[in-house]
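Sync notes, pocket subgroup
Present: LS, DG
LS reminded everyone that the earlier model was apo-only. Rerun requested with zinc ion included. Inputs:
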Amino acid sequence: MSVARKLPPPNPTRRAPLAKADADAIPMPPEAVDGADAANPSSTSTEHIVHAVTRAIVEHRLLPGEKLVEQKIADRFGVSRTIVRQAFNRLSELKLVRLEPARGAFVAAPSITEARQVFAVRRMVEGQMLRELVAVITTAQLRGLKAHLREERDAVKRIDVQARTQLLFDFHVELARVLGNQVLVDLMAELVARCSLITLMYQSADDAETSHAEHIAILKAIEARDADAAAALVDEHLLTVEHQLTERPRAPHIAHRTRSA
Ligand SMILES: [Zn+2]
C-alpha cells in the first residue's frame, strides 16, 4: 500500500499548510516549516521526520511492512533525500523501520518473540517508574494526567480509533514525563511506538474501554500515593495486553479495518 494513498488524518488543523489535501499518512509538524534550528538545520529536519513517522506509527496510519518512499518524504518536508535517509537510519536503530539493501525502507513488522520481549521490558521499567512517580508527583502533574484521561475517555466514547490509540499509548509516555528524566521519556516513546506495531499485528482483542478503565485505576492508586498498588496495576495492565497477543500475525490491512470498524 502506498503511503500517499492514505486517508487524511481526522484532525486537519494539526497539518502543515503545505500539506496536500489527499496527502500522506505522515503528518508534518508545523515546526518543520517555521521553527527550524538555525544552528543545525539538518539534524532538526532529521528529528522532525523521525518524530512524524513515529507519530504516524503510533496512530496506526502507517502499517507494519508498509514501504516508505524516500522521495515523497523528502518533497513533503522540503529536505534532501540524504536527510530522509538519516531519519530512516535513526528509525531503524529504534526498530521502527527496516532497511533492505536495494529495496528501501519499510515500516518494521516485529516478530512475536520481539513483541514479548518488548512487553517484558515495559513491565520491568514501568513498575519501578510508578513507584518513583508516586513519591514525587505534584498536584499540577496529577491534574495534567487527569486531563489526559478525560481526553482519552472522550475518544473512546466517540470511537475515534486514531485519537484513542494515540492517547492510550501516550498515557504511558506522560507518566514517564512526570519524573523529568528525558532518557526515560525517550525510552518509553520508543517502546510505546514498538508496541503500537505489535498490537496491530498480534493483538487478538482490542478493548479500548478496558484499557481506559485500567488507566483510571492506575491514576487513582497514584493519587492515593499507593506505590505498591500503582506498580501492581500497571504490571497487570501490561500483562493483560501481552496475554492477548496471538502467535501468528494478522494481516495488517485486515487488522486495520477491524480496528476501524
Ligand atoms: Zn495503557
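DG: Residues 168, 171-172, 211, 215, 237 surround zinc ion (CB under 6 Å).
LS: The longest strand covers residues 97-100.
Action: DG to write up.
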